[in-house]
Amino acid sequence: MSSHPIAGAGYLFQGLRLIIRPGIKRFIAVPLLLNLLIFSAAIYVGISQFEGLMQLMESRLPTWLGWLEWLIWPLFILLLFVFVFYTFGLLANLIAAPFNGLLAEKVERLLTGRPIEQEGDYARLLAELGPTLLDELRKLAYALLWAIPFLFLLFVPLVGPVLWFLYTAWMLAVEYSDYPMGNHGLRFAEIRRRLRERRLLSLGFGAATAGMAMVPVFNFLLMPVAVAGATAMWVREFRSPNGYQGPHQSRVATHYILLTIDHLSGRMDGEILAGPLTGRMLEATETGELLGLLDLCYRTDAESAEALEAYLTHERGQRFREPPPRPDAERTPPPPSPDRPGMDESEARAILGLAPDATDDEIQAAHRRLIQRLHPDRGGSDYLAAKVNEAKRVLMSSSV
């Protein structure tokens, strides 16, 4: 995780890459079309009205002041772009809100390989249209309420424009973070609280979004790019980590992977402990990146490869036959690593998700529950089933 504003800006650029990924492009059509229609209409009306104003001014000004037209037009165009993309953007987001929520859902599925527990795509979109628009109106009221003091401060030389830009950055961070967070039931107040806890990261994302809004052509892509970028930021920065071991959760640690297994749902997640992706949660890492890590595990740590294969098979639907042959040691020498010792009681308890004072009956029940989830005959993993059996053996022998 990072709290640096540059990291926040990086998520916006990641959004630019995400919207062109297969399976995502069709979901940006409606937000993109709305952006084009609303902003084009606003610019057309603004220019038409200004032309009338210029004609009126020319009829009343002396001829020798005609050069003012060449000065006023560029200033007007600049102000028009700033005004349109700061104000009409709120209208575009209001109209496109249901489609933005759907786009955020699809991007999150691309990043995590796991769908949000919702069904119906466009049918659900229509059912949620009313509540979504009400939420957007709340955000609009919040933005307008805070705009009043910042508009007054705008007239303060030097400081005013900076404060206005920071206000805009914050509002854009709130606006676009609402789509992925709202998909998980977070309310508006909770969204703001989470963003305040990572204020620099949030402002970095919002500042990059505000900057993109002022770049011609790119600003038409702003809405889908910002939704995708905010979703990536949510997945990798704001979602609750899965490092805590609850009463029905197992943990299997290897050199590269800490794998966690929920006994009740059977879901797997965990953390990457070593390698180029160190610190990432498995759920928040793209499948392609995990396959790259798997290739590294094949070359350097067989146990990590088995654990990661189990996760990719169970959670991402990947299928593996035989691992690729290890490369010649002279070409790719593996890093030295000490032999792993035999499983101790602490590791066995972590695998079965048991407290130190667990009884024999609790050991048996945890083993039975996990084997039902992880046995190879039920789509599980030989590696994990072996670890569960070994954990039971270690704990049962120590209790004798």
TrEMBL record:
Classification via InterPro entries: CysZ-like, CysZ/EI24, DnaJ_domain, J_dom_sf, Sulfate_CysZ
Membrane topology of the entry: Multi-pass membrane protein
Highest taxon of source: Bacteria
Keyword ATP-binding: no
Annotated SUPFAM superfamilies: Chaperone J-domain
Chain intervals with Basic and acidic residues compositional bias: 313-331
Region span, Disordered: 313-346
Transmembrane feature ranges: 27-50, 70-96, 140-156, 200-222
Gene3D superfamilies linked: DnaJ domain
Main location: membrane
Subcellular location: Cell inner membrane; Membrane
Residue span, J domain: 346-400
The keyword Lipoprotein is assigned to this record: no
Family: Belongs to the CysZ family.
Function: High affinity, high specificity proton-dependent sulfate transporter, which mediates sulfate uptake. Provides the sulfur source for the cysteine synthesis pathway.
PANTHER family reported in the protein's UniProt record: SULFATE TRANSPORTER CYSZ (PTHR37468)
Full protein name: Sulfate transporter CysZ
